[in-house]
Amino acid sequence: MMAVAPTPVTVIGGFLGAGKTTFLNRLLAAGTTRYAVLVNDFGEINVDATLIERHDGTTMSLTNGCVCCSIGSGFLETLGRLLDGDERFDRIVIEASGVGDPWRIAEIALIEPELRLDGVIVIADASRITRLVDDLRVGDTVRNQFARCNVVLLSKSDLVDETDLDAARRAVLSVRPDARIEILARETMPDLSLLGNRRVSAFRADGVEDDAPDHEENFRRWAYRRDGAFDRGRLAAAIKQFPPELLRLKGACRIADEAQPLVFQMVSSDWSLSPVDRDQEAGLGSIALVGVGTRDLPPDAELEAILDGALARPARA
Ligand SMILES: Nc1nc2c(ncn2[C@@H]2O[C@H](COP(=O)(O)OP(=O)(O)OP(=O)(O)O)[C@@H](O)[C@H]2O)c(=O)[nH]1
User: Fold this and answer.
1) ipTM of the modeled complex
2) Using CA positions, which residue lies closest to atom 1 of ligand 1?
3) SS3 for 12?
4) Which residues neighbour 216 within 8 Å (Cβ) at sequence distance 6 or greater?
5) What pLDDT digit, counting tens, does each position of 25-43 carry?
6) Which CATH architecture has domain 7-203?
């Protein structure tokens, strides 16, 4: 039997809302490479797999929380199915969850003979990373994500000026003085094989905590599902009531009097509603949002009451 060359694997990490899915979609749209994409969403509704735009390959979602904390189960099974299947891919790209440690996923590729770890890319939001690395509640997680990657891509450079971009660069270098940092510009798309590093040991830094905390314990996820629609004005008001412990909220929703479903995105207190791609529409229900917060996120009922207050009231007969 002819030996099959191992499939290169790229792991994409980065904190909640850094721009991993956006980067992945641009990557999938950019060229002719056949990708197998594995997305690990930190929520019971797998929003990310829905948000990955259709491409000439396959997308598999990894549920069950944070893959890097529960590497044994679903993740290995999914990988096994991929490797045993008839389809061949040029590259496997794995999107880690926003609170996960991408290196822990990369380690699987190091030990699996059919895979070759080619790169661990961490995306850092240029408009937030300076604050995040020093944040008392999430700083550890953020810094740990940089600890063993071979390249850092600074996203959202369109939101910052040169001074802030420089500060973002310095924030990354404060954690990883040897980091290779690239700016992720809207006009150009980096080539993954050029971002890769086959000499993996070169970015396998020493002195990093191996028994990093279980992310399931440090973060709490939350899901909100409703039939019906939000009222746009009430939604804007409701978002202002969210506690700062709610770090991320995303998913699909409907707005009263608007025919199309919309994608809702909230990173910290910044939020947006955007049209859903026609290809994505089938997977999106009326309101299905997933949230992630710190461990001290208020109880579900409290958060639900805030969003319930944003629902459009049915007209009385
Ligand atoms: N202005 C601007 N916004 C961006 C850019 N990249 C991503 N975003 C926005 O940032 C928000 C989060 O982006 P995602 O790509 O979903 O982030 P993510 O890292 O996949 O998020 P999680 O998987 O939930 O951790 C979305 O509203 C994006 O539209 C960018 O380069 N510039």
Assistant:
1) 0.99
2) 156
3) strand
4) 65, 66, 69, 70
5) 888 887 778 888 888 766 6
6) 3-Layer(aba) Sandwich (3.40)
312 vs 43 pLDDT, higher one: 312
143/149 Cα distance (integer angstroms)? 11
Domain layout of the chain by residue ranges: 7-203, 217-308
Q: Which residues surround ligand 1 with Cβ inside 6 Å?
A: 14, 16-22, 48, 98, 155-156, 158-159, 248, 250, 265, 267, 272
Q: Which of 12, 22, 138, 155 to mutate to test the pocket of ligand 1 (most atoms within 8 A of CB)?
A: 22
73-106 pLDDT, tens per residue? Answer: 567 777 888 888 888 888 999 998 898 889 888 8
Question: Tens of pLDDT along 227-238?
Answer: 989 999 999 999
- Looking at 3.30.1220.10, 1.10.287.1700, 3.30.300.160, 2.60.130.10, the CATH number of the domain 217-308 comes to 3.30.1220.10
Pairing assessment for the beta strands 270-275 and 262-267 based on DSSP bridges: antiparallel
Ligand 1 center from residue 59 Cα (angstroms) = 19
Of the two residues 57 and 157, the one the predictor is more confident about is 157
Q: Model-level pTM? A: 0.88
Which of 11, 21, 52, 187 has most ligand 1 atoms within 8 Å of its beta carbon, as the pocket-test mutant?
A: 21
Exposed/middle/buried for residue 146 (C-beta within 10 Å: 0-12, 13-18, 19+): buried
188 C-alpha vs ligand 1 centroid, how far in Å? 17
